[in-house]
Amino acid sequence: QVQLVESGGGLVQAGGSLRLSCAASGRAFSSIAMNWFRQAPGKEREFVASIRWSGGMTFYAGSVKGRFTISRDNAKKTVYLQMNSLKPEDTAVYYCNAGEVGRGDYWGQGTQVTVSS
């Protein structure tokens, strides 16, 4: 069983910043990459960013590239999403996901990010 626990969401004004964290635990945890997805009300869940545990290669959705930064701490099995220059359209529930780049079987419970205009 793999557990993913997100934290760091909240309410912020447009132009502000937030940092999300995702702590992974559980036996036989052997994902290749960690991902962040988000789901806004009435919309489908969409990919945000991904990072490989080994080597740290990163991938971003076009809508967040240049504003968001994904990073990881291998020793702590924790992944971060630094979100800068936030926009109202970034409002969503953000989910941590473990598996391969862009997809995986394990999900966190989600953390709400609300950006006010």
Task: Describe the protein's architecture and organization.
There is one protein chain. This protein is mainly β and 117 residues long. The chain has no helices and 11 strands. The protein has strands at residues 2-7, 10-13, 18-26, 33-39, 46-52, 58-60, 68-73, 78-83, 92-100, 103-107, 111-116. The strands form 2 sheets. Strands 2, 4, 5, 6, 9, 10 and 11 form a 7-stranded mixed sheet that branches. A 4-stranded antiparallel sheet has the order 1-3-8-7, with no helix packed on it. A hairpin with a 2-residue loop joins β9 and β10 (103-107). It starts with a strand and ends with a strand. The mean pLDDT is 95.
Query: What is the first-to-last residue Cα distance?
Result: 40 Å
Main β-sheet: number of strands, strand sense, barrel status?
A: 7 strands, mixed
Low-confidence stretches: none
Q: Given the helix and strand composition, which structural class is it?
A: mainly beta
Helix content: under 10%
Count of individual beta strands: 11
Work out the helix count: 0
The pLDDT mean sits at: 95
> How large, in whole angstroms, is the Cα Rg?
13 Å
> Which H/E pattern describes the elements?
EEEEEEEEEEE
Coarse shape: globular
Strand content: over 45%
What's this entry about, in short?
The protein has 117 residues and is mainly beta. 0% of the residues lie in helices and 58% in strands.
Please describe the topology of this protein.
Elements: E1 2-7, E2 10-13, E3 18-26, E4 33-39, E5 46-52, E6 58-60, E7 68-73, E8 78-83, E9 92-100, E10 103-107, E11 111-116
Parallel strand pairs: 2-11
Antiparallel strand pairs: 1-3, 3-8, 4-5, 4-9, 5-6, 7-8, 9-10, 9-11
